[in-house]
Amino acid sequence: PAPFTPAARADASRAPVVLAAASLQESLGAAADAWARHGHPRPVISFAASSALARQVEAGAPADLFVSADEAWMDYLAQRRLVRPETRLALLTNRLVLVAPAGSPVRLSIGPRMALGAALGSGRLAVADPDSVPAGRYAREALTRLGAWPQVARRLARGENVRAALALVARGEAPLGIVYATDARAEPRVRVVGTFPPASHAPISYPLARLARSANPEGEAFRRYLLSPEARALFRRFGFGTR
Amino acid sequence: MLTAGEWQIVALSLKVSAVAVGLTLPLAFALAWVLARARLPGKVLLDAAVHLPLVVPPVVTGWLLLLAFGANGPIGGWLERVLGVTVLFRWTGAALASAVMALPLMVRAIRLSLEAVDPRLEAAARTLGAGPWRAFATITLPLALPGVLAGLVLGFARSLGEFGATITFVSNIPGETQTLPLAIYAALQMPGGESTVARLAGISVLLSLVALVASEMLARRSGKGAHVL
Amino acid sequence: MLTAGEWQIVALSLKVSAVAVGLTLPLAFALAWVLARARLPGKVLLDAAVHLPLVVPPVVTGWLLLLAFGANGPIGGWLERVLGVTVLFRWTGAALASAVMALPLMVRAIRLSLEAVDPRLEAAARTLGAGPWRAFATITLPLALPGVLAGLVLGFARSLGEFGATITFVSNIPGETQTLPLAIYAALQMPGGESTVARLAGISVLLSLVALVASEMLARRSGKGAHVL
Amino acid sequence: MSFDIDLTLRRGNRTIAARIASHARLVALFGPSGAGKTSVLDMVAGLVRPDAGRIAVGGALLFDSAQAVNLPPERRACGYVFQDLRLFPHRSVAQNLRYGERLAPPERRFMGLDEVAGFLGIGHLLDRRPRSLSGGEAQRVAIGRALLAGPRFLLLDEPVSSLDAARREEILAVIARIRDELGLPILYVTHDERELARLGAEVVAIGG
Amino acid sequence: MSFDIDLTLRRGNRTIAARIASHARLVALFGPSGAGKTSVLDMVAGLVRPDAGRIAVGGALLFDSAQAVNLPPERRACGYVFQDLRLFPHRSVAQNLRYGERLAPPERRFMGLDEVAGFLGIGHLLDRRPRSLSGGEAQRVAIGRALLAGPRFLLLDEPVSSLDAARREEILAVIARIRDELGLPILYVTHDERELARLGAEVVAIGG
Ligand SMILES: Nc1ncnc2c1ncn2[C@@H]1O[C@H](COP(=O)(O)OP(=O)(O)OP(=O)(O)O)[C@@H](O)[C@H]1O
Ligand SMILES: Nc1ncnc2c1ncn2[C@@H]1O[C@H](COP(=O)(O)OP(=O)(O)OP(=O)(O)O)[C@@H](O)[C@H]1O
Ligand code: MOO
Ligand SMILES: [Mg+2]
Ligand SMILES: [Mg+2]
């Protein structure tokens, strides 16, 4: 292959390039497959941390769509006029759940004055890093609002992403963890102990937008497909909420 | 055994690592030579600069590469304007990231071997009619071969395992920048992806084993015997 | 200049890296010695095993460490039952992860230098009354010093930069396992975190520079001159 | 008997064989270049294992392939001046000289550093590294190192080949004294018949 | 003039000085160990830079601190047999011998590999690595390597010190022939007056 010839570039651009938060791997991959079955070139999707993807967009990487794990990085690009504002909208929503290893007997109802610290025993609470990962930020916000944060603030096991936290619970290395409902659903070795009330944290949303420099019409077409009833149904099968 | 997609990943990884290590070798050698032999002020700073990709977390290295080689970056902008080339989202960028990460390992290994070469042998070659370059090529270079081979193996292994700088710099694009570690990472993100992880990691290990055996055979063939009489 | 929290991170990073490199050194030396000198079948497999942490992406290494050293893992379970010790979520675990990642670099550097030591000098020491161990300690070891120092510097630098294995294995616990790279990574994840990244990365670089200068000074003091008369 | 040696060794495609049975204190190995003289010394020192044979020096059995005796070099205590010198490059001249001295039991030591440095003329070199020595200076340090180790016998492989006549005579006189006063057995390799005459050596021919 | 040399060099805390102005084809440097003989050869070869002085050999100016002339070693073409031999350990004996030969312009070559291997007696060693050679074998290879490089003059630093009498005589005869028939200037270092006598050398004392 001769990657640098203009012809090759033009050819490759027939399939849209989508940059997406790593936690969307299964669901968005399935959506791309479905889209391809409709006779379209299968979108090329790069799954990575939202921060890395946003910086790549800023550096001029040639891509068509961006799906962020939180609004902050989408805002970052919007401020720099790197996305088309009219194409931006919240594609998916999610819920925050408390999980325990599948065999764990722990019972706890989520609400004000919940005894989270006691339920942890001598163990740690697995979460995505509240200082950097969206899932962790939501968890901190929810626990703070429910008054449970002081009990656990110094007893966190902070994962690099929400799946790392999930793995700690699945392996039984942490007695409890806070992850997205979609993650809990995909991991048979964990059990959902309870779901955090939506009012306890800012809405969890995955914004989608078309990038300013996208010239590939397939990008817009795929974006529209993602908003279609068919795609929404597909995302709901993975546990996401849609609007 | 492997799916077509997985074969593609393996082929890409090999290409990226081979190009990374092959292109870095001359630079690594030159740096090793300067660090081992040249007298110049501030050598320690050059030494430190070579070590940077080791000290700084890989994602930071990737981010710095992105700043430099992005379309608006000093190097990337120039490449795009003058050559019409971009390494962003391309396998060439992945090779660049791997090369940067492998560089310190290669330099150190080569430098260690260069420092062990007895300069009296080069002097002998000079009296026999060899100019400085020829003495270098026929005496110093082959005597430093163990270090060069060690550098190649270390660099190749490091390239095969490079993840953070690559995904940060050139993203995770199947068929273009998704090397073995990125595919492994992706599998690791999926509940139940452990078997894929194990299979892909096994392939990485196999590839590096082949490189290792090849280098050992080369070293043996060249007769080692680096001792001075 | 630095906040109290940042000082804590720096101190922790230093502790983790120093312990990792210090404890790994004897093992690295033993492995290097076996690879350089011993004749044993399947040496190439041992060699490959040493290279593993280089080839396999760091997060996979961290994940394997988690499997082995977790409370439910074979080693971790034993440690907990027999010694009442756990490394999970502890700075000792971070040191373990760093040690594993640094090992291949240290082994290679030391091995290169060991292979360059002339065995005739050890023979001379033996005729002068030194047993094999003493000959090793007084002749081989000091003559391999350049490799040991290079191994220490590489290992220390690698430890300072280690991210993937650490966060996967012992997660990111401020004051316990949050080393510089973890803090840097966290900052890099946030819009506007660039200045923190730059400051913390600058500290990493400074620390490795100090290690580098120290090793160069040690090498110089020991007189180099590794050539045989 | 000072020397009771009978050994064979295959080297490449030739066989090196030596038989030395002598009461003489100083036996010289004489033979053309490549005959195997150094190889014999290496075997007596315990650095190379003979394919078969027996080595006894000064009544002590060092090697016997039949009895499976094979003392390691450090227990043979042999004061070996190597043809290729083998000074320790990372140690000063003084540290080289002292290397064996510190390991020798006091009762075996028969000379001190000052005396050795005196007749070898290396007192001014003590702080230097071997790399910076001239050929003859290095050779003298190698002699000193072997003597200071308190050896039970000496293996001298062309020990004065790089030395001027005056210095050579001085050193040969010391070697003769060591042989006569201390009674140490000495295996001596040289190509120079004058050295043999000077030392009154019994000559054993090697190879040819 | 064959040799027109006048130079000084500080080494450690002593000064090495040499004055050689001679029409003799073969000049021997004679002096005690450590006097500076090897240092003089190194300076003539261009490996060590004198602090001051002038070096001309066979009419060719090689170094002059006043005129800022300083030919690099490879342009001096000096056929140097080093006291420490310096055979290339990664090359076979044959490759060592051929190293300089291949670099020499054809008109400067005066001997072929076969002839050299013949009188040096190293024909059976050609495929070996230097490490496995005996001391005398290595010394002969070093002589052969220097002769095959088609040198304009020879620097011989105790070139036959490790050789038996018969071989020594044979090699000295060749050296004498090179001097007489080819007229190559030769600087010769030895401690053995018999070699000087054999070669009829003009003797220059160094240091002391
Ligand atoms: N590894 C080897 N392979 C083949 N031949 C060898 C090896 N090592 C030594 N030899 C040969 O064994 C022979 C004996 O060597 P040795 O060094 O004992 O000779 P020597 O009598 O000391 O000669 P010299 O007077 O030149 O020092 C030599 O011909 C040498 O080439
Ligand atoms: N780097 C150095 N520092 C100090 N002194 C040195 C250095 N290199 C050489 N010398 C000294 O210079 C002097 C001359 O050395 P050189 O090798 O020229 O002597 P030489 O006449 O060839 O002696 P020999 O006959 O023993 O080979 C010696 O005393 C040596 O110790
Ligand atoms: O997509 Mo996330 O970064 O796991 O919240
Ligand atoms: Mg010999
Ligand atoms: Mg000399």
From TrEMBL, chains B, C:
Residues 10-218 form the ABC transmembrane type-1 domain. SUPFAM superfamilies: MetI-like. The chain crosses the membrane at residues 12-36, 48-71, 91-114, 135-157, 197-214. Belongs to the binding-protein-dependent transport system permease family. CysTW subfamily. It holds the Pfam family BPD_transp_1. PANTHER family: MOLYBDENUM TRANSPORT SYSTEM PERMEASE PROTEIN MODB. The gene is modB. Its main location: membrane. The lineage of its organism: Bacteria, Pseudomonadati, Pseudomonadota, Alphaproteobacteria, Sphingomonadales. It is a multi-pass membrane protein. Part of the binding-protein-dependent transport system for molybdenum; probably responsible for the translocation of the substrate across the membrane. It is found in: Cell inner membrane; Cell membrane. Keywords: Cell inner membrane, Cell membrane, Membrane, Molybdenum, Transmembrane, Transmembrane helix, Transport. This is Molybdenum transport system permease.
Automatic annotation (TrEMBL), chains D, E:
Keywords: ATP-binding, Nucleotide-binding. SUPFAM superfamilies: P-loop containing nucleoside triphosphate hydrolases (SSF52540). InterPro entries: AAA+_ATPase, ABC_transporter-like_ATP-bd, ABC_transporter-like_CS, Molybdenum_import_ModC, P-loop_NTPase. One of its GO terms (molecular function) is ATP binding. SMART domains: AAA. Residues 2-208 form the ABC transporter domain. Gene3D superfamilies: P-loop containing nucleotide triphosphate hydrolases. Signal peptide: none annotated. This is ATP-binding cassette domain-containing protein. The lineage of its organism: Bacteria, Pseudomonadati, Pseudomonadota, Alphaproteobacteria, Sphingomonadales.
